[in-house]
Each structure stands twice: as structure tokens, then as C-alpha cells.
């Protein structure tokens, strides 16, 4: 996917998130994040959007803290979320290709990093908002495939990943609905170090394989739903479930 496509995804998914949040109401529980109500979801995602916007607009070349969660609720909170989402979309759309700012995972450019990261951040939280409403819409195939790739090859390649094993193991992720993307298979090598994932590598023996549509795997790997099909050593799927959560701090 290209930067412009990521921005389009961010735009669309943020609007859908706001619509679902308004329909559910800020008091509604979020089934995919049991510790949250919709107000928590709006506060968190809106804060992240503003945090990302600051890097793009202000050009911070080192880590810059977020602005914290707002003391807002109800309609005022929803409006605050919408304003922050729109500001991020506009900032990314107006940013130059050679934008120079801090980013926390490898990427072809800082601009592509922030567009991609916020597209997936917002897609996953749109699913959360729709789960509170009671009807969850689909995740586009290309978005799901790219999101699996980002999670496996970028997020969990970082030293802070807790998905580790005492002895080397191999976990395979295989999407079943990607005829146009035959390499939508990932081999994740687990050890006492951060996971090392490669695209493809299906010839290597795997201790456990997770199989399903790209959308199912995307949401499962983000711990939004159970894994569709687990073959082999199910303890590795459970390890992922227990240790893979990405926390803000």
C-alpha cells in the first residue's frame, strides 16, 4: 500500500469509528477491550491522533510525550475526537514527502510510517467502537494483509516485545483468502530474543500454524477475537494471546 492509500484508510476508518461511538453512546462497554467504555476508546484514540499530528506538523526529531487524556465526556468528547482525527488526516495529506520527524519503527519515510501506523491504529479501534455498537463491519483485504505484516515484522521486532520462548520455536501465520497475494504467509521465529518474522518461508517446519482469512488473522493477532484455526502446538497461540498486547507506555 502507498502513503496516500494509508491516509484514505485513516480518513474512512476514523469517520466510521466516530459514527459507531455516537450510535453506541459513551457509556457503552467495549467487548473487544473489556476494561473500556466507549469514552475510554475515544479519549485514547483521540490522544494518539493528536500525538501523531504533533510529530508531523511540528517536526519533532526526538520522542515527544503525548498531551494526556482530555477531561471531556459526551458530545464534547465526540467532537474533540472528530477534530483531532480531521487534523491528523489534513496534516498527513499536506506533509511533504521528505518530512523529517521522529518515528519508532523502520519505514521508507517518516511520512509513510505515520500514515501507516495511524491507519492501523484507527482501523483496530474502529472495530472496537463497532463492537460496542453491536455490528462490526469488514476490514479491507489489503489493509488486513498489511496490518499483519506491520504487527509481525515491525511491532514485535522491537526489543520491548514480550513474545519469547525458552527454546527456539517457529510460528506460522497463513492467510487463506489472498489468491492475489500468494506471499501472505509469515514465518515467525521465536526465542529468548525478540521475534524475527519473514514474509513467506512456508517451506520451514512450523511448531504451530495459525490459519484463517486475512481479516480474521489481523483481528486475532491484535487480540480482538479468537484465532480461527490453530494446528500444532497450541501453547504458542496461547503465548501470543498472553504476551503480545501492545501497551501505550
From TrEMBL:
<feature type="domain" description="Mycothiol-dependent maleylpyruvate isomerase metal-binding">
    <location>
        <begin position="12"/>
        <end position="129"/>
    </location>
</feature>
<dbReference type="Pfam" id="PF11716">
    <property type="entry name" value="MDMPI_N"/>
</dbReference>
<protein>
    <submittedName>
        <fullName>Maleylpyruvate isomerase family mycothiol-dependent enzyme</fullName>
    </submittedName>
</protein>
<dbReference type="InterPro" id="IPR034660">
    <property type="entry name" value="DinB/YfiT-like"/>
</dbReference>
<keyword id="KW-0413">Isomerase</keyword>
<keyword id="KW-0670">Pyruvate</keyword>
<dbReference type="GO" id="GO:0046872">
    <property type="term" value="F:metal ion binding"/>
</dbReference>
<dbReference type="InterPro" id="IPR024344">
    <property type="entry name" value="MDMPI_metal-binding"/>
</dbReference>
<feature type="domain" description="MDMPI C-terminal">
    <location>
        <begin position="143"/>
        <end position="237"/>
    </location>
</feature>
<dbReference type="Pfam" id="PF07398">
    <property type="entry name" value="MDMPI_C"/>
</dbReference>
<dbReference type="InterPro" id="IPR017517">
    <property type="entry name" value="Maleyloyr_isom"/>
</dbReference>
<dbReference type="InterPro" id="IPR010872">
    <property type="entry name" value="MDMPI_C-term_domain"/>
</dbReference>
<dbReference type="GO" id="GO:0016853">
    <property type="term" value="F:isomerase activity"/>
</dbReference>
<dbReference type="GO" id="GO:0005886">
    <property type="term" value="C:plasma membrane"/>
</dbReference>
Amino acid at each position: 500500500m502507498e502513503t496516500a492509500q494509508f491516509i484514505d484508510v485513516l480518513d474512512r476508518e476514523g469517520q466510521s469509528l466516530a459514527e459507531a461511538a455516537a450510535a453506541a453512546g459513551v457509556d457503552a462497554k467495549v467487548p473487544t477491550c473489556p476494561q473500556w467504555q466507549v469514552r475510554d476508546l475515544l479519549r485514547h484514540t483521540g490522544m494518539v491522533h493528536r500525538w501523531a499530528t504533533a510529530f508531523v506538523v511540528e517536526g519533532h526529531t526526538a520522542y515527544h510525550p503525548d498531551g494526556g487524556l482530555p477531561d471531556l465526556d459526551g458530545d464534547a468528547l465526540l467532537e474533540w475526537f472528530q477534530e483531532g482525527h480531521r487534523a491528523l488526516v489534513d496534516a498527513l495529506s499536506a506533509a511533504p514527502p521528505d518530512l523529517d520527524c521522529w518515528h519508532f519503527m523502520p519505514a521508507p519515510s517518516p511520512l509513510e510510517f505515520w500514515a501507516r501506523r495511524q491507519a492501523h491504529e484507527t482501523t483496530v479501534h474502529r472495530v472496537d467502537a463497532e463492537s460496542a455498537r453491536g455490528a462490526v463491519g469488514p476490514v479491507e483485504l489489503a489493509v488486513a494483509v498489511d496490518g499483519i505484516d506491520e504487527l509481525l515484522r515491525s511491532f514485535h521486532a522491537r526489543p520491548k516485545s514480550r513474545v519469547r520462548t525458552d527454546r527456539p520455536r517457529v510460528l506460522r501465520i497463513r492467510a487463506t483468502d489472498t489468491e492475489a497475494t500468494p506471499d501472505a504467509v509469515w514465518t515467525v521465529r521465536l526465542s529468548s530474543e525478540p521475534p524475527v518474522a519473514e514474509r513467506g518461508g512456508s517451506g520451514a517446519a512450523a511448531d504451530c500454524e495459525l490459519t484463517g482469512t486475512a481479516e480474521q488473522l489481523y483481528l486475532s493477532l491484535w487480540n480482538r477475537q479468537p484465532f480461527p484455526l490453530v494446528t500444532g502446538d497450541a501453547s504458542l497461540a496461547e503465548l501470543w494471546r498472553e504476551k503480545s498486547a501492545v501497551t501505550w507506555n
